[in-house]
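DATA SHEET
Item: assembly model
Revision: 1
Owner: S.N.
Input lines:
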Amino acid sequence: MITKYTYGNPFQTDAVVQKLEVQNGDVPYFTVVKTEEQLQFEYTLENEEKVYGLGENVRGINKRGWIYKSCCADEPNHLEDRTSLYASHNFLVLDGGKEQFGVFFDYPGIITFDVGYTHLNELKITLSEPDADVYVMTGESILDIVKQFRQLIGRSYIPPKWAFGYQQSRWGYMNEADIREVVKGHREKKIPLESIYMDIDYMERFKDFTVNQERFPDFPEFVKEMKAQHIHLVPIIDAGVKVEEGYDVYEEGIEKGYFCKKENGEYFVAGVWPGKVHFPDVLNKEAREWFGNKYQVLLDQGIEGFWNDMNEPSIFFAQDRMDETFDKIAELKDKNLDLDTFQQFTGLVGSLANNTDDFKKFYHNVDGKMMRHDKVHNLFGYNMTRAAGEAFERLSPEKRILMFSRSSYIGMHRYGGIWTGDNKSWWNHLLLNLRMMPSLNMVGILYTGADIGGFGADATEDLVMRWTQLAMFSPLMRNHSAMGTREQEVYRFDHVEEFRKIINIRYGLLAYIYSEYMKSALNSEMYFKPLSFVYTDDEFASQVEDQLLVGDSLMIAPVYNQNAKGRYVYLPEEMAMLRFRGVDDYDTEILPAGHHYVGAGLFEMLVFVRPDKILVLTDGGECTDEVDCDHVKALAFVKTKAEYVWYEDDGMGKDYENPDNYGRMTIEKDGNCVYTGSREKKIEVKLL
Ligand code: MIG
């Protein structure tokens, strides 16, 4: 059951798609403190109570023991002491206390979640204004609560099937030649590859929706050349529009008044990649439609996917602050800089980037009303991506377009996925990647993944290998790195054959991963689940924060420590373990419930098949087009009777509700397999 409570006069974020009656009185469970300036929700946590949720964030699956702040930030240091990353996902589920419930604070300004930070047993949520819609959910289980919430916020974004292939990116691919070389590096060694990302350098001086003519002299032709090799090019789009006379996007935006303005009516000027920019006012419906239509320029040249960056929005500097800073620095110029004045000097320069005070300096035009940005800050990335998503519905109604964003708010999950931003080539970020996945699924973000190998800092071959083994299961599987760091395309390392075999497993698993993704999206379910959400009676399950369930049949336990030759694994029930080196190179073992130490050499990855569930596995391929899902192996550990619901479609269109998309498979103890579905299948049963 979901109940809605309204405080003050909340901004309509469109996070939610169902219209609910507003309940009288205060939300249950919490002590509510209302003042003129803010709203506070207080709750006493039981010792054993767990707090799940908050989507994209630092720390564990259980969020207890830190303070988190919803304030979308360009934060490249995903460290334990940070309070905000790129997103705001204000949804929590409390479990293991007096009552189990979920709560969503639909408020687009700054919120803090003190989850046992100030006092171990106190949860205190503070909204910086007294206006919000709050939804409280109760149900039979965590999964039931999450499902109700997901139905409330609407169906998750569905990408084209090719977006489940292996993708390569790096900030620094400058031109056609660079991209051709990377494609060749993969294709020559038969390492599967689906797409190449185009980072900011493809543009003409960082101008959105332009292509640099010198670097890509005949772009549509180049797109074709890549497509002939089954490679999709995915260009980046940045939030800021370059201020430049003669640039059509700039001139149109000015003419129509579609950029964010200051209180005095002048356009707000920020500095980002292109130098001075204006921000498209994506909270203004008309401006949103206009900005979304701009993607057409690239669609027309054969592009089928995009990533939206810098949309917190990231501000290197606000021009007004920069001007003041220069004046103040000029005053300091001839002084003898003592400790205080020197600190003043560094403080001036150091506080230019992403200064939250600048959020108070610009406004959005929402249905004719001027809204100060800080009050709706967390909606920018969401609405930039919504602009694209809504445009794709108009411009490409029949065909799915790949779309994911850096910044997000709940609601954006209907228009695109996210990647988790600028992580680092650190082993603990591999673990952080794992822990973020289920929390993101709770808030509807299913198409997601982290930069494999880490974005910042130098990667090592073993880190990239282990990370690839985890990312094998994330819907977005993309290796990406920052300019200036060590190159980490897998063919550059020593063990190319091992990488080839490992990445090919992704293609072997494609049928399963796609089927599980689609069922999760269509049924409002989680694709990645913590063990405790499924094994609800298992006392130990909630202690496990380094294993996940993937879809209905599998559990994963990746190795995330350097030089480890294996790891401890907890099995809540008896399972079949597969130790994969390649799609047809693996050994199997049945392991009883309980704790185990399991070996897994650098080129081996562990996958566990749950009893009476089925894993469909193909031979893989070098791209998704090559994967033959009609000739499969069905791996099952049958105790009574194994069952699988297999979703398939053409991977491009939107005929999701067609009952023909579902096949059903059962396998008996003796290996007898029955498949009913609309497709002709050749199934080879492998009993585990
Ligand atoms: O300020 O476009 O998170 O993936 O490579 C850095 C360059 C801007 C940040 C993104 C990253 C991307 C980079 N961008």
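QC remark: The pocket of MIG is lined by residues 171, 199-200, 236, 309-310, 406, 421-422, 455, 480 (CB under 6 Å).
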